[in-house]
Amino acid sequence: MQILNQAVSLRIFLGENDQFDGKPLYEAIVMTARERHLAGATVLRGPMGFGKSSRLHTSKILRLSEDLPLLIEIVDSEDNINAFLPILDGMMSSGLITLEKVQVLQYGEKAAR
């Protein structure tokens, strides 16, 4: 397998109920990333988690939470991610953002052999 490129993984941890301009924050972030032509974004919903407040958010029937933890992951070049960070900062009032350098092994469809 050939390493195609160095990139940065941007991870955004937030709650399902977080809002921006009257719509879910996770939707606003993904749509903004798309408008800025970032390589891609994925939203993952967690069945359980807690943050700074230590308040437990869970999808268990007996403790049903409507504010489940979400993770948005975006992988792109370091320059593109760095250009996106100030925009993201203006959209978020709370949450956690992490950056990690990654090696992209494949992007797009594999060529037919």
From TrEMBL:
Gene3D superfamilies: 3.30.70.120. InterPro entries: N-reg_PII-like_a/b, N-reg_PII/ATP_PRibTrfase_C, UPF0166. It comes from the Bacteria. Pfam families: DUF190. Belongs to the UPF0166 family. This is DUF190 domain-containing protein. It comes from Bradyrhizobium canariense.
